[in-house]
Amino acid sequence: MAFDYDLFVIGGGSGGVRAARIASGEYGARVGLAEESRMGGTCVIRGCVPKKLMVFASAFPEAIAEAREYGWDVTPGPFDWTAFRNKLEAELDRLEGAYRTTLKNAGVTVHDERAVVTGPHQVRLASGAEFTARHILIAVGGWPFVPDIPGKELAITSNEIFHLTALPKRALVVGGGYIASEFACILHGLGVEVCQYYRGAQILRGFDEEARGHVANAMQARGIQIHCGTDVMRLEKTPEGIRAVSTDGTDREFDLVLYATGRRPNIAGLGLEALGLELGRHGEIPVDRYSQTAVPSVYAVGDVTGRVNLTPVAIREGHAFADTVFGAKPTTFDHELIASAVFTQPEFGSVGLSEEAAREQEPIEVYATAFRPMKTLFAGKPDRVMMKLIVSQATRKVLGCHIVAPEAGEMIQLAAIAIGMGATKEDFDRTCAVHPTMAEELVTMRKPTRTA
Ligand code: NDP
């Protein structure tokens, strides 16, 4: 059977774009890609990129306060949200353009409309056009999930936060994960009074407990009110704002309520029933190591598969798919040992096992330190940096590294190389320190803090 395309990709985000570019540009496949929104997906348009720019914007008041301590005669003026937002939008336009140029240069045919699956080799576009393809790649990503509480329509999600017409005075952030914790810090940095409600006992569940505590304490010390064990029962409109009636028995009023209570696969109305796939509990598309679904012609990469929901992971999955299917190089991506950073203030970088997970696995040594770093100590600030290595007693390999510090994301990227190569504690010890830095503590911790 002659197909219209060798590959049809649904979704122009990190995973879909990489797969399309490699399949077409490197391996000469005839590739079509449909995107219903803006090219670039969550990461570029409403995620990592605009978020990081907001992180930068929100850090200036602290930097200006520090500058004064270093002798500079500066005072912070007001923050012009509209000017920043317009510049942010222009930057996203530029990036979207770059994505489109990349796809065009790779020979990918882009369809700027929604596509749904109508069979193992068929897709239909919103305009009614139908195409056949030897392979279909589903890379539609995720979508914010908001629990079904009365008044949920009064809340916004991370999709809307970048488009606010004005910054609120008082904000409630609901959730304790990456997005909630990052936006609590961003909004606080921009001068908003921030409350964060989290239903569990400590924010950032799943990460190393000591590190979670360190991040939460630092956020609270900066003035963010974190209420753990607290959830919203309902939201009500008031003349002044939005009232949040909570499980802790309080009613508080806010100007903005941001829900960051997880993301779910974006599969509504995608036509997956035509494939007869059995989906996961939240709609994840199950795939094998090669990102192939139970329907041999259909693959899926990125957040829609619910493996590890991070942009670099989707990119690697998309690339491995293209190498496997069009490059005759069967390639898998290893989901173990993926480093990540939470862009709170202070930042939190992490790779490998938490102390708690490692302890379950085998006998370990823990090397941990917390200290006041030179730069902020000089400025008279109480901030402490935390660094922690989890080491296997049997193999001496470093099983996990957790850093809470300015630029922890940059540091953990490099630590992840060593740990991925199987570095032992003695390899760390043998490495000469770079002085004076914060990261030198990683190679100078000589005595275990505890064994377990
Ligand atoms: P997360 O899964 O990280 O966090 C969701 C939070 O919402 C958790 O604290 C969870 O609580 C809470 N929650 C879930 N359901 C409910 C509910 N019904 N009522 C109240 N609270 C609820 O999701 P995010 O939305 O923060 O981020 C989505 C994904 O995006 C992340 O998993 C991450 O992979 C990725 N991401 C990565 C970033 C980075 O690398 N820096 C930045 C932003 C996002 P509980 O812990 O109790 O389940």
Oligomer classification:
single chain
Low-confidence stretches: none
The CATH superfamily of the largest domain bears the name: FAD/NAD(P)-binding domain
Number of strands: 22
Tell me the count of domains.
Answer: 3
Outline type: globular
Structural notes for this entry:
This protein is 31% helix and 24% strand. By secondary structure, it is α/β, with parallel strands linked by helices. The chain folds into three domains: 5-143 and 264-326, 3-Layer(bba) Sandwich (FAD/NAD(P)-binding domain), CATH 3.50.50; 152-260, FAD/NAD(P)-binding domain (3-Layer(bba) Sandwich), CATH 3.50.50; 346-451, 2-Layer Sandwich (Enolase-like, domain 1). Strands 1, 2, 3, 4, 5, 6 and 16 form a seven-stranded mixed β-sheet that branches. α7 links the parallel β8 (170-174) and β9 (193-198). α1 packs parallel to α5, α1 (14-26) runs parallel beside α9 (311-326) and α3 (48-58) packs parallel to α7. It is globular, with a radius of gyration of 24 Å. The model has no long low-confidence stretch (mean pLDDT 97). Bound molecules: NADPH dihydro-nicotinamide-adenine-dinucleotide phosphate (NDP). NADPH dihydro-nicotinamide-adenine-dinucleotide phosphate binds next to α7 and β17.
